[in-house]
Amino acid sequence: MTERQNRIVANVDRHREQILAAERWLWAHPQTGFTEWEAHNYLKAAFTELGYALTEPGDIPGFFTDLDTGIPGPKLCIMGELDALDIANHPESVNGMTHCCGHHAQGAAMLGIAAALKEPGALDGMCGSIRLMMVPAEEMIQLAFREELRQKGVIHYMGGKVEFLYRGYFDGVDLCMMVHGAVAGPDEPFDFSCVMGYNGCLAKTIRFKGRSAHAGGAPHRGINAQYAAMLGLQACNDLRETFQDQDQIRFHPILMGVNCAVNIIPDEMKVESYVRARTLDAMIAVNKRVNRALTGAALALGAGVELRDRPGYSPEVHDPAMMRLIERCCTDLVGADRVRFDYSTWNTGSSDFGDLTCLMPGVQFNAAGATGAGHGIDYCVADPERQCVNSAKAQLLAADALLTDGAAAAKEIMAGYQPLYPNKEAFFATIDNITLDKDAVIYDADGNATVDFQNS
Ligand SMILES: [Zn+2]
Ligand SMILES: [Zn+2]
CA 411, 407, 106 angle in degrees (round to 5)? Predict the structure, then answer.
């Protein structure tokens, strides 16, 4: 490492205790998307204490702040996520929630970055500016709650980053970066990893509608919404052989029982799912087939089905040149044998970071230190030194490499980047087309049906 890099690392080490304490505090205060006020307030107080002036949306958690070098140049956004998951059976869950995706570790790392950047001379030699941002609601869960927020006009999109994008908080940002925790135990020989990208997703809420009746005495008077739902899912399963390998489709529905009693024919069955895919086109094409299958199942049993589709997250494609720069910084920090950047592997998960990579070069890489299964009941951050302190160091080394030397590296990456959309308006126009609200089967007085399961 150069003397300059050693100074950056020392700037983080000076705040090591605060980073580790933040990791513990945030782990103990998990809240799900768009309700993460405890983490928001904790980090807001810590950032304010460091002397940052924050811009806050106010009606939802999250904030950002800008550090200007005073010399014109690109704006780099570094972000951390605030939200936890609903997973009541995790042994350390609080009010049914746990940080079993490790987002709390991102907040701790962000605090380390914010503190290190306030050390004397930290910005010397850099140009442009750094935006530090805490974003809410990465996990696409509680779709009914989010739809309610959407209907009230509080949010416009289901994910925090895409909502922040909509609100203009990424206007003027040229590059973006974040670190997500990775599951790798203390004996596993890597500290940093990165894949080429992630699937996009759209969010589905499906409501089969039947008619209630006495399950024993008069089932012939009922229409069983649960059977319609099961038939719909069976039809979707039979579609799976039409999914093409290169599209990496994932469809993972769950039944969300409502009005359930064993002696009543269920008149309603809600299903939530995503359709995930490697490209937006594949996602839309498969979703159309899925909606047709669900509609057909409802028709088969004389039931109705309401289809509600919402834009989820865009496929996330990491900028390879930016990946290479970050890989070099990670290698400088921990050695090549502890860095695994893979330029061909694709992951079938999804993140709203993907919405950003449609519009600007960005990389989401991973810091090890967690054990157990991500989103699992055995998840914990066993090594916060690797997942939080190292994460802060790596991100600062990357920021420095991007913005020093007249930001030559950042400018080269920006020049080589091809956005998927000419601007954010075009992006939103495209994803808005995913929105669908249909009562897909309408019966007339004779029992004939009209079906309508897609936007014209
Ligand atoms: Zn997650
Ligand atoms: Zn996550």
Answer: 95
